[in-house]
Amino acid sequence: IAGITQAPTSQILAAGRRMTLRCTQDMRHNAMYWYRQDLGLGLRLIHYSNTAGTTGKGEVPDGYSVSRANTDDFPLTLASAVPSQTSVYFCASSEKSSDTQYFGPGTRLTVL
Amino acid sequence: GQNIDQPTEMTATEGAIVQINCTYQTSGFNGLFWYQQHAGEAPTFLSYNVLDGLEEKGRFSSFLSRSKGYSYLLLKELQMKDSASYLCAVLDSNYQLIWGAGTKLIIKP
């Protein structure tokens, strides 16, 4: 089934721990994105990649890093988690940066 | 700064029509998107406008006025399953989506 998968579905993490959220798409989309969604706020872009091998910073990149070694995978790493990173994280992809974005099911992360 | 405004919450009756407004101020404009998001789920694409006017897609229509920085989403023949949040987003000059906080639509029988 074509689409985007994210793992894990949810996670509780101790502050200071390292965590990688996984995102894989099988639509051969060039562009991929990581957003966080917090109550009362719009989706905020963390990092993006317009094509494999390139990445860029979004609105709220601090404390997060990404890599794009191939077309399908776009992992998001929290090097040392802090409670303010408690959020729902969505990965999305689009054929190119100007096209409609399609979202994965999300990862609910709680940092204690 | 960039800003997308939409009402926080709206209530409507099953079978009725509701209009959800969105105003925006962004650095550049490359199109406006509407997404639907049910509680606990991912946003799903509803519509895209880049030219002024109305785009109709079944029970849902979306309107854009670029000169006014304004869009609306019109939902007709409301069904209980339409209870969700509706997100307005603008593609800016850097081809990044700027998102509104969303409008929670409550449908009453």
Architecture blueprint of SSEs:
The complex is a heterodimer of chains A (about 110) and B (about 110).
Chain A (H helix, E strand, L loop, with lengths): L3 E4 L2 E4 L5 E7 L5 E7 L6 E6 L6 E2 L6 E3 L9 E3 L8 E8 L7 E2 L3 E5 L1
Chain B lengths: L2 E3 L3 E5 L4 E8 L6 E6 L6 E6 L3 E5 L2 E6 L4 E6 L8 E8 L5 E3 L3 E6 L1
Parallel strand pairs in B: 2-11
Antiparallel strand pairs in B: 1-3, 3-8, 4-5, 4-9, 6-7, 7-8, 9-10, 9-11
Note down, in words, how this protein is organized.
The complex is a heterodimer of chains A (112) and B (109). Chain A has 112 residues and is an all-beta fold. In chain A, the strands form 2 sheets. In chain A, strands 2, 4, 5, 6, 9, 10 and 11 form a 7-stranded mixed beta sheet that branches. A 4-stranded antiparallel beta sheet of chain A has the order 1-3-8-7, with no helix packed on it. Chain A is built from no helices and 11 strands. The relative contact order of chain A is 0.34. The model of chain A has no long low-confidence stretch (mean pLDDT 96). At the A-B interface, strand 5 and strand 10 of A face strand 5, strand 9 and strand 10 of B.
